[in-house]
Amino acid sequence: MHIPVLAREVLQGLDLKPGETVIDGTLGAGGHAALMLEATGPNGKLVGFDRDGRNIEISKKNLERFGERLSAINDSFAAMETYGLSADAILLDLGFSSMHVDEAQRGFSFMYEGPLDMRYDLRGDITAADIVNSWSRDDLATLFRRYGEDPNAQVIAKAITEARKEKRFVTTLDLADVVAAVVPRRGKLHPATFVFQALRIAVNDELGELEKGLQAAEKVLKAGGRIAIITFHSLEDRIVKQFFKESSVLETVTKKPIVPGQTEVLDNPRSRSAKLRIAKKK
User: Fold this and answer.
1) End-to-end CA distance of the chain
2) For position 267, what pLDDT does the model report?
């Protein structure tokens, strides 16, 4: 099962009570959901959203012991308001699933060869291959600079547009190799890290979904209820921080983001960039 990040801190921050209703906007394999269902037992409810239909099936199996207390919906958390929900607590863990990284066929990782896809929802129309094979050099550079905050955006965009004249980009390694050829490696970070991040964000409209999801969550959350959001890069964190600050109905609980301790980072290296912010509805 996917290791839930900042699990203890999430449970403490949400201050869950037996019988409460929780929304898990990013169900994944059900790691956080299991803990929240236990905390709201014996009769609390959890509604989980996930854009990946496969994750819905995996989480249902992992959480089958909770029976009808779980409702799993194959949709974006941005749509939660359309389901007539009212929640005592909401969790959004914005980190993409380890299952996505580890399965080459989903095309999220430059560590394995797979199709250049990156869609959470396989019903989506656009793939990462579509972007790198059709967007202009200027548009690619803007994408890598804006969503990847990559200082080498122009160099990479030029290399991609030159390389695709010879052949289309089909696999993750096709792209990773072109980037690595023009950007020197520094330290442990692969030269294509920020390019893959930018493409993933664009393919799934992650920042747009986050903004819509925050607005929906604010409406769905009951008075006195809490929302916890885990981000994994500065673009997400800035959006969450600003939303909490500007909201007229949410009061920030965490003056500074909560980050994993050294033990958690050693046990789960993928947690190292996580930041948790919590707010309470007035």
Assistant:
1) 35
2) 93
Q: Is 37 helix (H, G, I), strand (E, B) or coil?
A: helix
CA-nearest of 212, 196, 200 to 120 is 200
Residues 128 and 197 occupy one common structural domain: yes
What does pTM read for this prediction? Answer: 0.94
Phi/psi-derived region of residue 149, left when phi > 0, alpha when psi is between -120 and 50, beta in every other case = left
Say if residue 74 is exposed, middle or buried (CB neighbours under 10 Å; 0-12, 13-18, 19+): middle
Give yes or no: residues 139 and 123 share one domain. yes
Residue numbers of the domain that contains 128: 104-204
Positions of the chain with pLDDT under 50: none
**Looking at the chain, how many residues does it have?**
282
Q: Within a domain: residue 195?
A: yes
Whether residue 146 sits in one domain with residue 90: no
Count of CA atoms in the C-beta half-sphere (13 A) of 67: 5
